[in-house]
Design brief:
The complex is a heterodimer of chains A (310) and B (288). With 310 residues, chain A is mostly helical. Chain A contains 14 helices and no strands. Helix content of chain A is 75%, strand content 0%. In chain A, helix 5 runs parallel beside helix 10, helix 8 runs antiparallel to helix 10 and helix 8 crosses helix 14. Helix content of chain B is 33%, strand content 28%. Classes of the chains: A mainly alpha (310), B alpha/beta (288).
Chain lengths: 310, 288
């Protein structure tokens, strides 16, 4: 791609007049990602809105907080941690889900929208290759979105901590009990791990959506979703089996059982002890999925070369 | 090195290749020319431009600035700009974002120059493209393209849907502030009359073939149009005009390669407009 052509000096083309500075090969990629963020503000507004709703609902729920904290010592240790950590886990989980939904809708439109509004002709008039474009679009759900929602989750956690501490102090309660059962830094490392795991695990979903987005002339969302559903319905109706259906289910939620040990012996106060990267990395489903992703992206690059406005 | 060199350029559509869009184009465009590619709808103009821009694969030989546009497209796009009709700037983008983005990805974009062009318009930096009028979008696109130090500029119907004032301004700006002998411009349009004075060369394309290819000087020296006196019609027809039409009840005959002196006696002699020549040549093509 541009790596080669950028570094090889070409005296015949790079004319002396106004000798343009050679751009680093990462610049088109960087600007392509930036323009995706300009165009798709839902990528960060969606998770931010979810965080706002969560905080608001948490604030309302703090009415019962002092009472809940008073009961804490009476519960078994496991349940104590669970009770304290619950709002933090719910916040992280819901922001994850919103990010996934936003990523799905982003991918469905990423290579279709530019053909629909004819702007593909403008993008193609600039020296940015199809590969750079498709990779920059793929990097949005795989890299950029996790990097965007990580600070959102951390800040949401801090605000929850701040709000609950303030409520407890206002009621004359001690915050020590709550803080002692809040392994926040471990939790944040676990969130980082979960973000990496889900990005890798869902990569084939995004890859497939980008491929359909590059291919479909109309209604890319339906083309992306209905055929897999139809296959699942067909095999179930005709043969009473659900191998394809469970494959889809595995692809959507399988990461959860693979990436964490779910060992009941592990203390709930140790979020890091629950991580099972070895099990996750040795799952063939991960590597087959990444292979499938690469194939989808390669096909999307090729399709975009031939694509015209619709 | 010629700017564009095509030989046996073919392009077919459909699974069996039944629709022939380009049927063996031979074309050579030297640097520093302004070429008008003129033809009826479906003649293959846009297909030819798409091949030149590396937007579509083709058969035959094609070199643009010495490169194969299909395989070296990305490298080529640093030296080639194009406007492929006015409505392609992304509507969600702010003017400032368009400038930022092009400055970010294009090594030959001179942002100060683009800002200079924009300063002469009423386009505000904070506006979104969708909030601009069609004429303003064209001005914006033109400002971008003129600030790119390209060696080939391709314009496909650049003024489609614009009112007369903007169309005139478009070509004036292009000629005065952009064009010089080191650049080449290829333009297609339906409005033949308005680019007539801009072009240095003209190519008529019909059904995927080039039916006429001349410099404007050649056209002036070769083709003559005579509004014939009624009594001279028979004599004029004997000189084998390539086209005949009626205007205000008089016959207007168009000649190729006939001596001006010979025609002067038959009526008022003048150089035909491109539009008239187009009708004459295309009429011929239709008969063949």
């Amino acid at each position: 791609m541009n790596v080669r052509s950028d570094t090889v000096a070409d005296p015949a083309i790079d004319m002396p007049e106004g000798a343009p500075a050679l751009l680093s090969p990462t610049r088109p990629f960087y600007w392509s990602v930036r323009r995706e963020l300009w165009e798709n503000r839902a990528l960060y507004l969606g998770p931010l809105a979810m965080a706002a709703v969560l905080l608001f609902s948490f604030l309302i729920s703090t009415i019962h907080l002092p009472e809940k904290m008073r009961e804490l010592p009476e519960l078994p240790p496991e349940a104590q941690y669970e009770r304290v950590l619950m709002p933090y886990n719910v916040a992280a989980g819901l922001i994850f889900i919103v990010a996934f939904i936003v990523g799905v809708f982003y991918c469905v439109d990423a290579l279709h929208g530019e053909r629909r509004d004819r702007s593909i002709l403008f993008w193609k008039s600039l020296p940015v290759s199809d590969r750079t474009t498709v990779l920059s679009k793929a990097s949005i759900p795989l890299v950029v979105l996790p990097l965007l929602i990580y600070p959102i989750i951390v800040v949401t956690h801090l605000l929850i901590l701040l709000a609950s501490s303030a409520v407890l102090l206002a009621h004359g309660e001690s915050v020590a009990q709550m803080w002692a059962r809040l392994p926040l830094f471990q939790l944040w490392l676990a969130v980082l791990y979960a973000l990496t795991v889900t990005a890798l695990w869902h990569a084939p979903v995004y890859g497939w959506l980008l491929l359909v987005s590059a291919w479909a002339r109309r209604v890319p969302f339906l083309w992306a979703v209905l055929p897999p559903l139809a296959i699942a319905a067909f095999e179930r109706g005709a043969f009473g089996i659900s191998s394809f259906g469970s494959l889809i289910q595995y692809r959507l939620v399988g990461w959860f059982t693979l990436a964490f040990s779910h060992d009941p012996g592990i203390s709930a106060g140790e979020p890091l002890a629950d991580l099972a990267p070895g099990k996750f990395l040795s799952a063939p489903g991960l590597w087959l999925g990444l292979l499938f992703t690469a194939a989808c992206l390669a096909a999307a690059v090729r399709l975009r070369r031939y694509r015209e406005p619709i | 090195m010629p700017c564009i060199e095509a030989s046996g350029l073919r392009k077919t559509f459909g699974t069996t290749g039944t629709t022939i869009a380009l049927d063996g184009i031979e074309l050579r465009v030297e640097e520093g020319r302004i070429l008008g590619l003129i033809g009826p709808n479906g003649a293959g103009k846009t297909t030819a431009l798409n091949a030149i821009l590396g937007l579509t694969p083709y058969q035959g030989e094609l070199r643009v600035l010495g490169r194969d546009p299909w395989t070296e497209r990305e490298r080529l796009m640093r030296d080639v700009s194009f406007i492929s009709d006015v409505a392609v700037l992304p509507r969600w983008m702010r003017v400032s974002q368009v400038l930022d983005y092009v400055a970010g990805v294009h090594p030959r974009f001179d942002r100060a120059k683009a800002e200079g062009f924009l300063a002469k318009t009423s386009i505000q930096r904070g506006r979104k493209v969708r909030q601009l009028s069609k004429g303003m979008v064209t001005q914006l696109h033109l400002a971008l393209v003129m600030a790119i130090d390209a060696r080939l500029l391709v314009l496909d119907e650049p003024t489609l849907g614009l009112d007369l004032l903007f169309r005139k301004q478009f070509y004036d700006t292009l000629l005065n502030d952009y064009f010089d002998r080191s650049r080449t411009i290829v333009v297609t349009t339906h409005q033949v009359e308005e680019i007539q004075d801009v072009l240095t060369d003209v190519v008529f394309i019909h059904r995927g073939r080039i039916v006429l290819e001349h410099s404007m000087e050649e056209i002036e020296s070769r083709y003559l149009e005579v509004m014939v006196h009624p009594e001279g019609v028979a004599a004029a027809r004997a000189l084998q005009p390539i086209h005949e039409r009626q205007l205000f009840g008089r016959s207007v005959l168009l000649f190729d390669h006939v001596d001006r002196q010979q025609l002067a006696g038959l009526g008022d002699v003048r150089t035909p407009s491109l539009a008239d020549l187009f009708v004459a040549v295309m009429g011929q093509g239709a008969v063949q």
